Amino acid sequence: xxxxxxxxxxxxxxxxxxxxxxxxxxxxxxxxxxxxxxxxxxxxxxxxxxxxxxxxxxxxxxxxxxxxxxxxxxxxxxxxxxxxxxxxxxxxxxxxxxxxxxxxxxxxxxxxxxxxxxxxxxxxxxxxxxxxxxxxxxxxxxxxxxxxxxxxxxxxxxxxxxxxxx
Length: 166
Hints:
Arc Repressor Mutant, subunit A; Alpha-Beta Plaits; 5 helices; 2 domains; elongated; alpha+beta
């Protein structure tokens, strides 16, 4: 994560094709050395490093992380949880968001439109662990009025890569 820099929105037109190639190379291999990146985008190492740092400073590159295999670590269940909050409990929303941020089982959380308020991506070791998490943790958060879960049967596509040419 970039610390101490102010993140700004970068308009699509502010990134040239070399920036996009660099971002594409980083999305494919975030551990690539500067020399490997320079070769991939056909630019000098000094120019590549300058562009790389600029993209970090602009906040285009938010952070670097290792993508772990959940099943290899014993998390055999992935579920998508639809959370409905009680109406009129605005004061509970910040509490809910704070707790969600602390719960390691929750990998992603989105505030959404429609009949539900949030969609969570949750990992669990097994169905019993998922049930315990739903009943003993999630349903006990103040302001939560209901949850519905969908258990993932098969992961077809899972990426955080951005469509750079779209």
